[in-house]
Amino acid sequence: MTERKVALITGATGQDGAYLAELLLSKGYVVHGLKRRSSSFNTGRVEHLYQDPHEDDPRFILHYGDMTDSTNLIRIVQQTRPDEIYNLAAQSHVQVSFETPEYTANADAIGTLRLLEAIRLLDLTNKTRFYQASTSELYGLVQEVPQSEKTPFYPRSPYAAAKLYGYWIVVNYREAYGMHASNGILFNHESPLRGETFVTRKITRAVAAIRHDRQDRLYLGNLDAQRDWGHAREYVRGMWLMMQQEKADDYVLATGETTRVRQFVEWAFADVGMDIEWRGTGVDEKGYLRGTDRCVVEVDPRYFRPTEVDLLLGDPTKAQTVLGWKHETGVRELVSEMVREDMKLMANAPVIANA
Ligand code: NDP
Ligand code: GDR
After folding, report:
1. Which atom from ligand 1 is nearest to the alpha carbon of 16?
2. Of 80, 112, 128, 135, catalytic
3. What are the residue boundaries of the structural domains of the chain, listed by start?
4. 135 catalytic residue (yes or no)
5. What is the pLDDT of residues 292-348, one digit of tens each?
6. What is the mean pLDDT of residues 217-242?
7. Best label site of 91, 167, 271, 326, fewest CB within 10 Å?
8. Which part of the chain is the NAD(P)-binding domain (predicted)?
Protein backbone atom coordinates (compact mmCIF):
# COMPACT_ATOMS: atom_id res chain seq x y z
CA MET A 1 0.00 0.00 0.00
CA THR A 2 1.33 3.47 -0.85
CA GLU A 3 1.80 5.87 2.04
CA ARG A 4 -0.77 8.63 2.29
CA LYS A 5 0.57 12.11 1.62
CA VAL A 6 0.56 14.40 4.64
CA ALA A 7 -0.35 18.08 4.43
CA LEU A 8 -0.25 20.84 7.02
CA ILE A 9 -2.57 23.80 6.45
CA THR A 10 -2.11 26.95 8.50
CA GLY A 11 -5.32 28.97 8.49
CA ALA A 12 -7.34 25.76 8.20
CA THR A 13 -10.39 27.43 9.76
CA GLY A 14 -10.51 30.22 7.16
CA GLN A 15 -12.33 30.35 3.82
CA ASP A 16 -9.51 28.86 1.74
CA GLY A 17 -8.38 26.48 4.48
CA ALA A 18 -11.82 24.88 4.56
CA TYR A 19 -12.00 24.36 0.79
CA LEU A 20 -8.41 23.14 0.63
CA ALA A 21 -8.85 20.66 3.49
CA GLU A 22 -11.91 19.27 1.70
CA LEU A 23 -9.95 18.94 -1.57
CA LEU A 24 -6.93 17.24 0.01
CA LEU A 25 -9.08 14.81 1.99
CA SER A 26 -10.88 13.88 -1.23
CA LYS A 27 -7.46 13.09 -2.70
CA GLY A 28 -6.59 10.75 0.15
CA TYR A 29 -4.24 13.03 2.14
CA VAL A 30 -3.89 13.08 5.89
CA VAL A 31 -4.58 16.73 6.68
CA HIS A 32 -3.26 18.55 9.74
CA GLY A 33 -4.61 22.02 10.37
CA LEU A 34 -3.56 24.87 12.60
CA LYS A 35 -6.36 26.50 14.59
CA ARG A 36 -6.18 29.42 16.98
CA ARG A 37 -7.45 29.30 20.49
CA SER A 38 -10.58 31.41 20.69
CA SER A 39 -13.10 32.05 23.45
CA SER A 40 -15.85 30.77 21.17
CA PHE A 41 -15.93 28.13 18.44
CA ASN A 42 -14.03 29.17 15.30
CA THR A 43 -14.22 25.89 13.41
CA GLY A 44 -17.64 26.37 11.78
CA ARG A 45 -16.24 26.16 8.24
CA VAL A 46 -14.63 22.76 8.82
CA GLU A 47 -17.26 21.22 11.10
CA HIS A 48 -18.39 18.85 8.34
CA LEU A 49 -14.83 17.51 8.10
CA TYR A 50 -14.41 17.01 11.84
CA GLN A 51 -13.37 13.57 12.98
CA ASP A 52 -13.40 12.43 16.57
CA PRO A 53 -9.73 12.21 17.58
CA HIS A 54 -10.61 8.97 19.38
CA GLU A 55 -11.39 7.30 16.06
CA ASP A 56 -8.79 4.96 14.62
CA ASP A 57 -6.53 6.62 12.11
CA PRO A 58 -8.21 10.05 11.79
CA ARG A 59 -7.34 11.87 8.57
CA PHE A 60 -8.25 15.42 9.63
CA ILE A 61 -6.50 16.64 12.74
CA LEU A 62 -6.53 20.17 14.15
CA HIS A 63 -3.71 21.49 16.34
CA TYR A 64 -3.76 24.63 18.44
CA GLY A 65 -1.20 27.11 17.21
CA ASP A 66 -0.35 30.60 16.17
CA MET A 67 1.83 32.13 13.48
CA THR A 68 3.44 34.35 16.10
CA ASP A 69 4.77 31.41 18.15
CA SER A 70 7.93 29.81 16.72
CA THR A 71 8.22 26.97 19.20
CA ASN A 72 4.65 25.95 18.56
CA LEU A 73 5.17 25.94 14.79
CA ILE A 74 8.42 23.98 15.05
CA ARG A 75 6.76 21.38 17.28
CA ILE A 76 3.81 20.91 14.91
CA VAL A 77 6.05 20.58 11.85
CA GLN A 78 8.24 18.14 13.78
CA GLN A 79 5.26 16.02 14.86
CA THR A 80 3.54 15.97 11.48
CA ARG A 81 6.54 15.92 9.09
CA PRO A 82 4.34 17.10 6.20
CA ASP A 83 4.98 16.49 2.52
CA GLU A 84 3.26 19.80 1.79
CA ILE A 85 2.70 22.91 3.89
CA TYR A 86 0.08 25.40 2.75
CA ASN A 87 0.67 28.68 4.57
CA LEU A 88 -2.75 30.30 4.48
CA ALA A 89 -2.85 31.78 7.98
CA ALA A 90 -2.83 35.55 8.04
CA GLN A 91 -4.42 38.67 9.41
CA SER A 92 -6.00 38.94 6.01
CA HIS A 93 -8.12 42.10 6.24
CA VAL A 94 -6.54 45.04 4.43
CA GLN A 95 -8.40 47.77 6.32
CA VAL A 96 -7.78 46.12 9.70
CA SER A 97 -4.06 46.06 8.90
CA PHE A 98 -4.01 49.87 9.18
CA GLU A 99 -5.27 49.45 12.77
CA THR A 100 -2.97 46.55 13.66
CA PRO A 101 0.14 47.00 11.50
CA GLU A 102 2.64 45.43 13.89
CA TYR A 103 0.55 42.34 14.56
CA THR A 104 -0.11 41.98 10.83
CA ALA A 105 3.64 42.07 10.11
CA ASN A 106 4.30 39.56 12.86
CA ALA A 107 1.71 37.03 11.71
CA ASP A 108 1.90 37.54 7.93
CA ALA A 109 5.58 38.34 7.33
CA ILE A 110 7.57 36.87 10.22
CA GLY A 111 5.07 34.02 10.53
CA THR A 112 6.06 32.92 7.03
CA LEU A 113 9.73 33.08 7.95
CA ARG A 114 9.08 31.03 11.10
CA LEU A 115 7.59 28.22 9.06
CA LEU A 116 10.38 28.23 6.49
CA GLU A 117 12.93 28.13 9.30
CA ALA A 118 11.07 25.24 10.92
CA ILE A 119 11.46 23.25 7.69
CA ARG A 120 15.18 24.07 7.57
CA LEU A 121 15.90 23.42 11.25
CA LEU A 122 14.16 20.06 11.09
CA ASP A 123 16.10 19.00 8.01
CA LEU A 124 12.97 18.74 5.92
CA THR A 125 14.22 20.96 3.10
CA ASN A 126 14.27 18.09 0.62
CA LYS A 127 11.00 16.58 1.78
CA THR A 128 8.53 19.36 2.53
CA ARG A 129 7.05 21.51 -0.22
CA PHE A 130 5.81 24.98 0.71
CA TYR A 131 2.90 27.04 -0.63
CA GLN A 132 2.72 30.72 0.27
CA ALA A 133 -0.59 32.61 0.07
CA SER A 134 0.66 35.66 -1.78
CA THR A 135 -1.77 38.21 -3.07
CA SER A 136 -2.73 40.62 -5.83
CA GLU A 137 -2.54 43.33 -3.13
CA LEU A 138 1.21 43.23 -3.81
CA TYR A 139 0.55 45.14 -7.06
CA GLY A 140 -1.15 47.96 -5.13
CA LEU A 141 -0.76 51.22 -6.98
CA VAL A 142 -1.65 50.49 -10.58
CA GLN A 143 1.39 50.36 -12.84
CA GLU A 144 0.31 47.87 -15.47
CA VAL A 145 -2.96 46.22 -16.50
CA PRO A 146 -3.50 43.29 -16.58
CA GLN A 147 -1.13 42.26 -13.80
CA SER A 148 1.07 39.21 -14.30
CA GLU A 149 4.02 37.51 -12.58
CA LYS A 150 6.24 40.13 -14.23
CA THR A 151 4.38 43.23 -13.03
CA PRO A 152 6.33 45.24 -10.40
CA PHE A 153 4.94 45.39 -6.86
CA TYR A 154 3.87 48.58 -5.05
CA PRO A 155 2.12 47.64 -1.77
CA ARG A 156 -0.47 50.08 -0.44
CA SER A 157 -1.21 48.80 3.07
CA PRO A 158 0.56 47.28 6.08
CA TYR A 159 -1.04 43.99 5.00
CA ALA A 160 0.44 44.20 1.51
CA ALA A 161 3.84 45.28 2.86
CA ALA A 162 3.85 42.25 5.19
CA LYS A 163 2.85 39.96 2.33
CA LEU A 164 5.64 41.48 0.23
CA TYR A 165 8.16 40.22 2.78
CA GLY A 166 6.45 36.83 2.71
CA TYR A 167 6.69 36.71 -1.07
CA TRP A 168 10.39 37.54 -1.20
CA ILE A 169 11.46 35.33 1.70
CA VAL A 170 9.83 32.41 -0.10
CA VAL A 171 11.74 33.24 -3.29
CA ASN A 172 14.93 33.58 -1.26
CA TYR A 173 14.57 30.21 0.51
CA ARG A 174 13.90 28.60 -2.85
CA GLU A 175 17.06 30.10 -4.34
CA ALA A 176 19.29 29.86 -1.26
CA TYR A 177 18.41 26.37 -0.04
CA GLY A 178 16.77 24.75 -3.05
CA MET A 179 13.48 24.51 -1.17
CA HIS A 180 10.36 23.60 -3.16
CA ALA A 181 8.61 26.83 -2.21
CA SER A 182 6.02 28.55 -4.42
CA ASN A 183 4.02 31.75 -4.29
CA GLY A 184 0.44 31.74 -5.48
CA ILE A 185 -0.33 35.37 -6.34
CA LEU A 186 -4.06 35.03 -5.97
CA PHE A 187 -6.54 37.68 -6.97
CA ASN A 188 -9.68 38.08 -4.84
CA HIS A 189 -11.65 34.89 -4.47
CA GLU A 190 -14.94 34.64 -2.70
CA SER A 191 -17.63 32.11 -1.80
CA PRO A 192 -20.46 31.56 0.65
CA LEU A 193 -17.69 30.82 3.19
CA ARG A 194 -16.11 34.27 2.76
CA GLY A 195 -15.56 36.24 6.00
CA GLU A 196 -18.49 38.57 6.70
CA THR A 197 -16.41 41.77 6.73
CA PHE A 198 -15.00 41.46 3.20
CA VAL A 199 -17.01 43.54 0.78
CA THR A 200 -18.64 40.75 -1.27
CA ARG A 201 -19.98 38.84 1.71
CA LYS A 202 -20.90 42.05 3.52
CA ILE A 203 -23.04 42.91 0.49
CA THR A 204 -24.69 39.51 -0.01
CA ARG A 205 -25.38 39.15 3.70
CA ALA A 206 -26.93 42.63 3.83
CA VAL A 207 -29.05 41.93 0.74
CA ALA A 208 -30.47 38.87 2.48
CA ALA A 209 -31.03 40.78 5.74
CA ILE A 210 -32.71 43.71 3.96
CA ARG A 211 -34.89 41.34 1.94
CA HIS A 212 -35.97 39.72 5.21
CA ASP A 213 -36.63 43.15 6.83
CA ARG A 214 -33.91 42.61 9.40
CA GLN A 215 -31.75 45.51 8.27
CA ASP A 216 -32.74 48.77 6.60
CA ARG A 217 -29.57 49.88 4.84
CA LEU A 218 -26.11 48.89 3.79
CA TYR A 219 -23.14 51.16 4.50
CA LEU A 220 -20.17 50.81 2.17
CA GLY A 221 -16.92 52.62 1.37
CA ASN A 222 -15.33 53.03 -2.05
CA LEU A 223 -17.85 51.86 -4.65
CA ASP A 224 -15.48 52.50 -7.55
CA ALA A 225 -12.78 50.00 -6.58
CA GLN A 226 -12.40 47.29 -9.21
CA ARG A 227 -11.57 43.70 -8.35
CA ASP A 228 -10.96 40.47 -10.26
CA TRP A 229 -13.29 38.16 -8.33
CA GLY A 230 -13.22 34.36 -8.71
CA HIS A 231 -14.53 31.38 -6.74
CA ALA A 232 -12.42 30.17 -3.79
CA ARG A 233 -13.13 26.48 -4.43
CA GLU A 234 -11.44 26.72 -7.83
CA TYR A 235 -8.46 28.70 -6.50
CA VAL A 236 -7.49 26.09 -3.89
CA ARG A 237 -7.21 23.56 -6.70
CA GLY A 238 -4.65 25.90 -8.27
CA MET A 239 -2.68 25.90 -4.99
CA TRP A 240 -2.58 22.11 -5.03
CA LEU A 241 -1.49 22.04 -8.68
CA MET A 242 1.46 24.34 -7.89
CA MET A 243 2.63 21.86 -5.26
CA GLN A 244 2.50 18.96 -7.74
CA GLN A 245 4.95 20.59 -10.19
CA GLU A 246 8.46 19.22 -10.35
CA LYS A 247 9.86 22.72 -10.06
CA ALA A 248 8.65 25.36 -7.61
CA ASP A 249 7.60 28.67 -9.14
CA ASP A 250 5.27 31.66 -8.73
CA TYR A 251 1.87 31.87 -10.41
CA VAL A 252 -0.98 34.34 -10.77
CA LEU A 253 -4.48 32.89 -10.33
CA ALA A 254 -7.20 35.22 -11.62
CA THR A 255 -10.24 35.27 -13.89
CA GLY A 256 -9.02 38.02 -16.24
CA GLU A 257 -12.20 40.03 -15.67
CA THR A 258 -12.64 43.03 -13.37
CA THR A 259 -15.81 44.43 -11.78
CA ARG A 260 -16.62 47.53 -9.74
CA VAL A 261 -17.95 47.18 -6.19
CA ARG A 262 -20.98 49.23 -7.34
CA GLN A 263 -21.77 46.64 -10.04
CA PHE A 264 -21.49 43.80 -7.51
CA VAL A 265 -24.04 45.61 -5.33
CA GLU A 266 -26.41 46.11 -8.28
CA TRP A 267 -26.29 42.45 -9.28
CA ALA A 268 -26.78 41.26 -5.70
CA PHE A 269 -29.91 43.38 -5.14
CA ALA A 270 -31.21 42.45 -8.62
CA ASP A 271 -31.07 38.80 -7.57
CA VAL A 272 -33.69 39.41 -4.89
CA GLY A 273 -35.74 41.74 -7.09
CA MET A 274 -34.90 44.98 -5.25
CA ASP A 275 -34.06 48.42 -6.62
CA ILE A 276 -31.31 50.41 -4.98
CA GLU A 277 -31.51 53.91 -3.67
CA TRP A 278 -27.95 55.23 -3.52
CA ARG A 279 -27.31 57.79 -0.81
CA GLY A 280 -24.71 60.05 0.73
CA THR A 281 -21.12 60.59 -0.02
CA GLY A 282 -20.48 63.25 2.60
CA VAL A 283 -20.75 63.90 6.30
CA ASP A 284 -21.88 67.13 7.96
CA GLU A 285 -19.75 69.28 10.26
CA LYS A 286 -20.62 67.09 13.27
CA GLY A 287 -19.48 64.02 11.45
CA TYR A 288 -23.04 62.71 10.89
CA LEU A 289 -24.12 61.38 7.53
CA ARG A 290 -26.37 63.79 5.66
CA GLY A 291 -29.95 62.73 5.12
CA THR A 292 -32.26 60.79 7.39
CA ASP A 293 -34.58 59.12 4.89
CA ARG A 294 -34.70 55.38 4.71
CA CYS A 295 -32.39 54.15 1.99
CA VAL A 296 -30.75 50.98 0.96
CA VAL A 297 -27.11 51.68 0.11
CA GLU A 298 -25.19 54.55 1.66
CA VAL A 299 -21.55 55.52 1.34
CA ASP A 300 -19.86 55.89 4.71
CA PRO A 301 -16.38 57.42 4.59
CA ARG A 302 -15.34 55.38 7.63
CA TYR A 303 -14.83 52.49 5.20
CA PHE A 304 -12.45 54.48 3.00
CA ARG A 305 -8.85 53.30 3.32
CA PRO A 306 -5.91 55.66 3.92
CA THR A 307 -4.41 54.33 0.69
CA GLU A 308 -6.58 52.36 -1.72
CA VAL A 309 -5.92 49.81 -4.44
CA ASP A 310 -8.10 51.07 -7.29
CA LEU A 311 -7.88 48.40 -9.94
CA LEU A 312 -6.93 44.73 -9.94
CA LEU A 313 -7.14 42.64 -13.08
CA GLY A 314 -5.03 39.51 -13.36
CA ASP A 315 -3.45 37.73 -16.29
CA PRO A 316 -3.59 33.99 -15.53
CA THR A 317 -1.86 32.87 -18.75
CA LYS A 318 1.09 31.21 -16.98
CA ALA A 319 -1.18 29.16 -14.70
CA GLN A 320 -3.25 28.15 -17.71
CA THR A 321 -0.25 27.11 -19.74
CA VAL A 322 1.90 25.42 -17.09
CA LEU A 323 -0.63 24.15 -14.54
CA GLY A 324 -3.60 23.66 -16.84
CA TRP A 325 -5.61 25.75 -14.36
CA LYS A 326 -8.52 27.92 -15.41
CA HIS A 327 -11.35 29.53 -13.45
CA GLU A 328 -14.83 28.20 -14.18
CA THR A 329 -17.25 30.42 -12.27
CA GLY A 330 -17.79 33.92 -13.63
CA VAL A 331 -18.40 36.84 -11.28
CA ARG A 332 -22.13 37.12 -12.10
CA GLU A 333 -22.66 33.48 -11.18
CA LEU A 334 -20.58 33.95 -8.03
CA VAL A 335 -22.81 36.83 -6.89
CA SER A 336 -25.92 34.69 -7.33
CA GLU A 337 -24.47 31.75 -5.43
CA MET A 338 -23.47 33.97 -2.51
CA VAL A 339 -26.86 35.72 -2.42
CA ARG A 340 -28.70 32.39 -2.60
CA GLU A 341 -26.71 30.93 0.29
CA ASP A 342 -27.12 34.04 2.44
CA MET A 343 -30.86 34.07 1.74
CA LYS A 344 -31.03 30.50 3.06
CA LEU A 345 -28.99 31.38 6.15
CA MET A 346 -31.10 34.45 6.83
CA ALA A 347 -34.36 32.52 6.47
CA ASN A 348 -33.14 30.14 9.16
CA ALA A 349 -31.51 32.73 11.44
CA PRO A 350 -33.57 33.60 14.51
CA VAL A 351 -32.57 37.25 15.07
CA ILE A 352 -29.81 39.23 13.43
CA ALA A 353 -28.58 42.53 14.76
CA ASN A 354 -28.41 45.46 12.35
CA ALA A 355 -24.98 45.51 10.66
P1 NDP B 1 -9.40 34.13 6.12
O2 NDP B 1 -9.28 35.44 6.80
O3 NDP B 1 -10.75 33.56 5.82
O4 NDP B 1 -8.59 33.02 6.94
C5 NDP B 1 -7.39 33.32 7.58
C6 NDP B 1 -7.02 32.14 8.47
O7 NDP B 1 -5.82 32.48 9.18
C8 NDP B 1 -8.06 31.81 9.55
O9 NDP B 1 -8.06 30.41 9.75
C10 NDP B 1 -7.51 32.51 10.78
O11 NDP B 1 -7.93 31.94 12.00
C12 NDP B 1 -6.03 32.25 10.57
N13 NDP B 1 -5.15 33.15 11.33
C14 NDP B 1 -5.17 34.49 11.38
N15 NDP B 1 -4.18 34.94 12.17
C16 NDP B 1 -3.53 33.85 12.63
C17 NDP B 1 -2.43 33.65 13.50
N18 NDP B 1 -1.78 34.67 14.06
N19 NDP B 1 -2.03 32.39 13.76
C20 NDP B 1 -2.68 31.33 13.21
N21 NDP B 1 -3.74 31.45 12.40
C22 NDP B 1 -4.15 32.70 12.10
O23 NDP B 1 -8.55 34.25 4.77
P24 NDP B 1 -8.75 33.49 3.36
O25 NDP B 1 -9.06 32.08 3.62
O26 NDP B 1 -9.63 34.32 2.50
O27 NDP B 1 -7.28 33.65 2.74
C28 NDP B 1 -6.28 32.66 2.99
C29 NDP B 1 -4.91 33.29 2.75
O30 NDP B 1 -4.81 33.75 1.42
C31 NDP B 1 -4.59 34.49 3.63
O32 NDP B 1 -3.21 34.45 3.91
C33 NDP B 1 -4.90 35.69 2.75
O34 NDP B 1 -4.12 36.79 3.14
C35 NDP B 1 -4.49 35.14 1.40
N36 NDP B 1 -5.19 35.67 0.24
C37 NDP B 1 -6.55 35.65 0.20
C38 NDP B 1 -7.23 36.07 -0.93
C39 NDP B 1 -8.72 36.07 -1.02
O40 NDP B 1 -9.25 36.74 -1.91
N41 NDP B 1 -9.42 35.34 -0.17
C42 NDP B 1 -6.46 36.54 -2.12
C43 NDP B 1 -5.03 36.47 -1.97
C44 NDP B 1 -4.43 36.04 -0.83
P45 NDP B 1 -9.40 32.30 12.62
O46 NDP B 1 -10.38 31.45 11.84
O47 NDP B 1 -9.25 31.90 14.03
O48 NDP B 1 -9.60 33.77 12.40
P1 GDR C 1 -9.50 43.42 -0.46
O2 GDR C 1 -10.97 42.91 -0.12
O3 GDR C 1 -9.12 44.63 0.29
O4 GDR C 1 -9.42 43.47 -1.96
O5 GDR C 1 -8.61 42.21 0.12
P6 GDR C 1 -12.23 43.65 0.51
O7 GDR C 1 -13.40 42.81 0.15
O8 GDR C 1 -12.02 43.99 1.94
O9 GDR C 1 -12.28 45.04 -0.32
C10 GDR C 1 -12.44 45.06 -1.73
C11 GDR C 1 -12.69 46.50 -2.18
O12 GDR C 1 -13.98 46.91 -1.73
C13 GDR C 1 -13.88 48.21 -1.19
N14 GDR C 1 -14.97 48.44 -0.23
C15 GDR C 1 -15.13 47.81 0.95
N16 GDR C 1 -14.41 46.83 1.54
C17 GDR C 1 -14.84 46.36 2.75
N18 GDR C 1 -14.19 45.34 3.34
N19 GDR C 1 -15.95 46.87 3.36
C20 GDR C 1 -16.69 47.88 2.82
O21 GDR C 1 -17.67 48.33 3.39
C22 GDR C 1 -16.27 48.36 1.53
N23 GDR C 1 -16.76 49.28 0.69
C24 GDR C 1 -15.97 49.33 -0.37
C25 GDR C 1 -12.49 48.25 -0.56
O26 GDR C 1 -12.09 49.60 -0.33
C27 GDR C 1 -11.69 47.51 -1.61
O28 GDR C 1 -11.29 48.39 -2.61
C29 GDR C 1 -8.99 40.86 -0.08
C30 GDR C 1 -8.49 40.04 1.12
O31 GDR C 1 -8.99 38.74 1.01
C32 GDR C 1 -6.97 40.00 1.13
O33 GDR C 1 -6.55 39.08 2.15
C34 GDR C 1 -6.48 39.50 -0.23
O35 GDR C 1 -5.08 39.50 -0.24
C36 GDR C 1 -7.02 40.38 -1.35
O37 GDR C 1 -8.44 40.37 -1.28
C38 GDR C 1 -6.60 39.90 -2.71
Report:
1. 25
2. 135
3. 6-191+228-257, 199-225+260-308+330-348
4. yes
5. 444 589 999 999 999 999 999 999 999 999 999 999 999 999 999 999 999 999 998
6. 97
7. 326
8. 8-338
